[in-house]
Design brief:
single chain, alpha+beta, Jelly Rolls, CBS-domain, Beta Polymerase, domain 2, 4 domains, four-stranded antiparallel beta sheet, globular
């Protein structure tokens, strides 16, 4: 029999070819007239149905409550097979053709394939992770771990060893770094440290190695992913990390030892940024970022890891531009803030600029203004479009002294106007990236008072999470507009702002939504199931949005929030529907918690 549905996608792509061939031989094609009841509540299902044509509706037994609808390539009712009874009623609402896989054959495949079985018996997050891995040609590097093949044995010297002896040991052992024991502490000295100390600094051959060693060691655990080691090197602008196992140092992992294994060269971009001496060089480095994203996404990098790496590189790009533009004497006079998704560390492809400035002194405004214009132009050259709402430090509304920002925050929070609450939401995710970071601390404290968190302000603030409808129909299906939905308005914003509202109420300092959810779970503000469900949903929304953004050919494709439902496979539509239901349920939680039904 020729099969008219795509079985080379999850969940069936988790089967080996011989298992898939076996499945195809056991599929039956069954027909239902409009109005035919396929399964009744309490029935023992004959098997798993895969819709080929038509629509099937899932309801309670009296057909008064609709739970869902199933169309082309959708699957039902897995739960009935696993539990040996059907909880709901399934009715064909138009002429419908389904493929039927008998229950005993489905159970046989669950027993034969671990991945197939796990997919049907797990949560959204695990399903999403499995689909990501199956969809993408995961590179060997992404899956490789820190092990004996890449770890160099440690070479130790005592604190009293002089620089001449240390240099000789490096030469003999073909190492570019030595670990330094000083009492109970362990530090590190590199070949670069020796050169700087003797050729640029005032040290000589007899200087003790402890005098130039660095003791703030960055480490990874033995068995961790190489990608995580690379991420730490990029974040800390270093070329090696210490490797620990069971609390003990067992060696060093060198950047150069990973070069042949990693083809995306994020470290090269980081080094180009650090070494740039002109804006032209920085612009050249920035243009490599989008290709890096495409490559890493194709190699199977998880959305959370990709966000973390790109955030690190983007911020370093801005920092280096700041260093090139601002004279050293002016750098302490300002604090540059990134806001919104960039402040939360949740941006992958570049979106419009959201930024602000804190001035140390009002008298510096005129001196700083032309420098900010240059930095704004640099961001445009890097590929960050202007913010349509004008949330940029080139506008007077977003450049103030500490006192002025505190007064502005107070006015925002004293007003119930939606635009003021949205300004506060944007600013609450601020993260200092350049200049005098100390200026931001008293500003941030201005919205962390107990009187604010326990007042009606929290409800005003949270209300914004409800301003956009969840794109679900009354029947529980995805409500689309000409086959498309706005994934930001319908899913990402209400989830992110709902979490932000709870963070505001509970004085959680973290900006990143995933970190906020982690803290909320630890503090039992949200139960484990809710927190995990929201994490899984957010990462799924970001993943499918990124995939469709990368398929576009627009110059500013990161600005697109439109999701084409027709381009989603059945498995993705199902996970999207599941994720949207999570958002809808979360909005109900927010309504009850903040008493928003009274607004």
């Amino acid at each position: 029999m020729t099969i008219q549905i795509n079985l080379h996608q999850p969940p069936f792509s988790f089967l080996a070819q011989e298992q898939l061939d076996w499945l195809i031989q056991r599929l039956d094609l069954v027909f239902f007239h409009a109005g035919d009841v396929i399964l009744n509540e309490g029935d023992q299902t004959p098997g798993l149905y895969i819709v080929y044509k038509g629509v099937v509706e899932e309801t309670d037994q009296k057909s008064t409550k609709v739970y869902s609808q199933y169309a082309n390539e959708d699957i039902f009712d897995v739960r009935a097979v696993l539990e040996s009874r059907c909880r709901h009623k399934f009715t064909a609402i138009e002429e419908t053709l389904c493929y039927l896989l008998k229950a005993e054959d489905f159970v046989h495949l669950l027993d034969e394939s671990d991945d197939f079985s796990i997919y049907f018996k797990t949560d959204l997050g695990t399903q999403q992770s499995m689909v990501e891995q199956k969809d993408q040609s995961t590179s060997e590097f992404i899956l490789s771990r820190v092990d004996d093949d890449v770890v160099r044995p440690p070479a130790y010297v005592s604190a009293q060893t002089n620089l001449a002896r240390a240099a000789a040991l490096m030469f003999d052992k073909k190492n570019d770094a030595l670990l330094v024991r000083s009492g109970k502490d362990v530090g590190i000295v590199t070949g670069t440290d020796l050169l700087k100390a003797t050729l640029i600094g005032d040290k000589n051959k007899q200087t003790r190695v402890v005098d130039i060693a660095q003791f703030n060691l960055i480490h990874v655990e033995y068995g961790d992913f190489l990608f995580n080691a690379l991420l730490k090197m990029t974040q800390h602008q270093i070329e090696r990390v210490v490797v620990r196992k069971d609390g003990e140092i067992i060696g060093l992992l060198e950047l150069m030892d990973m070069l042949s294994a990693f083809s995306t060269h994020s470290h090269i971009i980081a080094m180009r940024i650090n070494q740039a001496t002109s804006m032209k060089q920085l612009v050249s480095a920035s243009k490599r970022l989008e290709k890096l994203i495409e490559t890493m996404h194709g190699q199977g990098a998880k959305s959370s890891a990709l966000m973390e790496l790109i955030t690190t590189l983007n911020r370093r790009l801005i920092q280096r531009a700041f260093e090139l533009i601002f004279p050293e004497r002016m750098r302490s006079a300002v604090c540059i803030l990134v806001l919104g998704s960039e402040g939360r560390g949740e941006q992958i492809l570049k979106t419009d600029q959201d930024n602000a400035v804190i001035l140390k002194d009002e008298h510096d405004r005129e001196a700083v203004r032309p420098l900010l214009l240059q930095l704004h132009q640099a961001l445009l050259d890097f590929g960050y479009p202007p913010c349509p709402g004008g949330v940029m430090f080139i506008n007077d509304s977003w450049i103030h002294t500490v006192d002025e920002w505190q007064s502005r925050v107070a006015r925002w929070l004293d007003s119930a106007k939606p635009e003021n609450m949205m300004n506060m939401a944007i600013f609450m995710d601020a993260e200092p990236v350049c200049g005098n970071h100390e200026l931001f601390k008293p500003v941030k404290q201005s919205w962390q008072g107990e009187d604010l968190r326990s007042s009606i302000v929290s409800s005003w603030f949270a209300r914004q999470a409800l301003q956009f409808d969840t794109p679900l129909t009354f029947l529980g299906n995805i409500r689309e507009d000409h086959g498309k939905i706005d994934i930001k308005k319908g899913a990402i914003f209400p989830l992110v702002h709902g979490v932000r509202s709870l963070a505001f109420e509970n004085a959680i300092n973290e900006c990143n939504t995933l970190e906020r959810l982690k803290i909320m779970e630890e503090r039992e503000i949200l139960d484990q199931e809710t927190a995990q469900g929201l994490r899984d949903a957010l990462l799924f929304f970001i993943r499918i949005r990124l995939k469709q953004q990368l398929d576009r050919e627009d110059m500013n494709r990161g600005l697109s929030q439109e999701l084409d439902i027709n381009k989603l496979r059945s498995v993705d539509r199902n996970m999207l529907r599941h994720g949207l239901h999570r958002v809808k349920k979360f909005k109900q939680l927010l309504t009850h918690h903040f008493h928003l039904e009274n607004f």
